[in-house]
Structure of FAD-binding oxidoreductase:
Amino acid sequence: MNQVSDFTAALARALPESAFRLSADDRRPFETDWRGLFNNASAAILLPGSTDETAQMLKLCNEHGIAVVPQGGNTGLVGGAVPIENSGAQAILSLRRMRAIRNVDPLNNTMEIEAGVILQAAQQAAEAADRLLPLSLAAEGSCQVGGTIATNAGGIQVLAYGSMRNLVLGLEVVLPDGQVWNGLRSLRKDNTGIDLKQIFIGSEGILGVITAATLRLVPRPRKSLTALAAISDPHQALALLRATQENFGSELTSCEYFGAAGLELVSRHLPGAVSPFANSHPAFVLLEVSSLDADADLAARIEPVFERLVTDGTLQDVVIAQNETQRQRLWALREALSEGERAAGGAIKHDIAVPIFAIPDVLHSIESGLPEIAPGARPNIFGHLGDGNLHVNIMPPEGRAIDLLLARATEITSFIEGVVVAAGGTFSAEHGIGQLRLKSLKQHRSSLELELMRAIKGVLDPKWMMNPGKVLNQGS
Amino acid sequence: MNQVSDFTAALARALPESAFRLSADDRRPFETDWRGLFNNASAAILLPGSTDETAQMLKLCNEHGIAVVPQGGNTGLVGGAVPIENSGAQAILSLRRMRAIRNVDPLNNTMEIEAGVILQAAQQAAEAADRLLPLSLAAEGSCQVGGTIATNAGGIQVLAYGSMRNLVLGLEVVLPDGQVWNGLRSLRKDNTGIDLKQIFIGSEGILGVITAATLRLVPRPRKSLTALAAISDPHQALALLRATQENFGSELTSCEYFGAAGLELVSRHLPGAVSPFANSHPAFVLLEVSSLDADADLAARIEPVFERLVTDGTLQDVVIAQNETQRQRLWALREALSEGERAAGGAIKHDIAVPIFAIPDVLHSIESGLPEIAPGARPNIFGHLGDGNLHVNIMPPEGRAIDLLLARATEITSFIEGVVVAAGGTFSAEHGIGQLRLKSLKQHRSSLELELMRAIKGVLDPKWMMNPGKVLNQGS
């Protein structure tokens, strides 16, 4: 392939050795996604150490007709950061070397950081300045801030602080032709024409490469209280959400749901994980409330709410963590759900959101309709109740391999998405489209909406060389 | 003019009489902006009663080459909703007849409303469902929701709840060629490709006409406390902001700044407006904290903070409103600032934002540099301290007419914008560009940024017929 060898020769002339890797062995770890669903060859791994190097690389790729696949921590669930099959030459551009925390400003409540900073490192830098970077998700130990912006990541604190979009004040982006747009402003308000950064947030690398960002920080809560409630059905989960929201508003920082199936998975695969309840229950809600007031008596405020809900039969039971160890044990039940599912052999995953009031009906429709489509399949449904965002993961019958289910994957997904969209919901709440959900996007969005997205893509990436085969295809 | 008479004849054939006005007398009230800065002729007033009628009108305008100027409550401060001079035929499309509140859903915490709903009516509809629509600004009695979206309005609660962008979950937009994009989703999370609604929010009518929206509501606070603090300089204002933010976070719902000049204007023009302080002071900060907890003792939480700040000399004095009447009196001082200024003969207005820490230096530079540029001119500086957003309004010397100053307007604005932009700030925080700030946008944004905005405009409005001469010009 002349095209690729010309490109790599140009790369070697223009950039230091540390900035790229070409051997198959070196490329391999970048080519497979975290779930192991996708594994396609790349032409090169680009490892820019700066915005300038990123710009040079995109310019070279543009000149040589090499497509660019931006990659952060490679923790995405829809194959958005790895190459597609059967395309032309694709270079993976990993931001992992761009790890500078340029500044943390506790007066302005902002931080400016490079895209390759691990989310947890960014959280720690904020904490060191006595501030909170309020984005928290399971992959925080390995995902990169740039990736969380490119995918508009959510997680367990969206209820109080919003998704990543809500935390981004400014961006630096390298465009497909190598031009650098410096939009690193650190202002709360800036109404000066079309807000370009909004177009890049959540665009999954199809418009350019985010190299740095200014993020909004908030004061750190001084007190928090974590509780686990046992319920008998989703209507009760909503009643609990409503009651705590009325009393705590944005002090309700997490409201997570999981079912008995999830608890069982976790108990089986996580050493020491046990239900704090003597009896078994159909479902659970994990709540966390937080206050900036160091003297706040959160227990005194929430206990009357719980008492009322237990008395009127809304809650079957409830426990409040009495110390940090108990708090971590409750959270471990929620956090281990994905790992438990993985250990049990995996699942066909869905990441849906519906209007809050529709949750009980949607869950009922899915649970009652599923046996017809996939007899014996076990739904493991959990997620961010307060955002209307649930992960509807379908596992094979007990003792059977996931392969059995994969043959029915299209029907299962189509059934679940149908129920969700009919209820005014979305088939992708926080995971994005990547290469996994292209068909769903095409099916569930109007042709006008897709046409507008393609037209905007065409403006920023006229040759369609950024992250090909993700989100949109050029022709249709 | 054949073009216009052809258009109005087509209009009369296609639409009911209630949907347009053609006489000069009927057109006049729509042609002048609230400040009286701009007054240019329109070819027709379009008054759609529905999304369908809006679509028909845009189609007709598109076919006849008539430009469209969308207009909400016409309360903007930069001439964004009235025609420009010396352009071709322009029809003003007022949304005032589209006033349906389609639904308010207290379970999902959302409302779906048409663009022409007055902001105050929307607030009241939310209140009737025991919810808060957390956007509040001086013009709320006459501005329309569609206008607040098209301008990404801010106001006095941005600190806690964000600007309008943060409250919009879904949009319905009629494109320049009459196609309707229905993006009225009511979800907290929806990561499905490029987020089109973000492009329309804050785009000031240059990309299409917003006809309806789904907005996010929040629980209504059950308790609030309002206080006015007297300070001797802006450093102290920041110390006060920081201290209350650390203790109240998003429970600090307002933090407004004004100077002695503003207080004097208000006292002179607002019957009964008096300072609650015995002595005079250089500047003031109006604070409001709010809690969802009906039993919250906000005074007990804030008094120790105030005591500490009075003791260490940060605050000169402070009063806490003891009842609703006192609360309204304190707010009246802040809210009457624009009216007071207007009654005194007007001012050259600026709407700037800077990083919070830069406020004292920026104010100092402006106040010390101004006499050289406009001897005797009086700055009236006030605004949303917590957002870094101040209105830097320059009034003529005592007893002189504003005309004197208008001759120096370009120099004054250029000086103030220079100081602000050098400090990492913006020349338009919440008012937008309209026709007043086109030159500033061109001066202070990179050519790449302007080029990208123009390219996106070209995608959505290829004939450049939407709100011509606002925000961007086609050629440069």
Residues 38 and 88 of chain A are 16 Å apart (CA to CA).
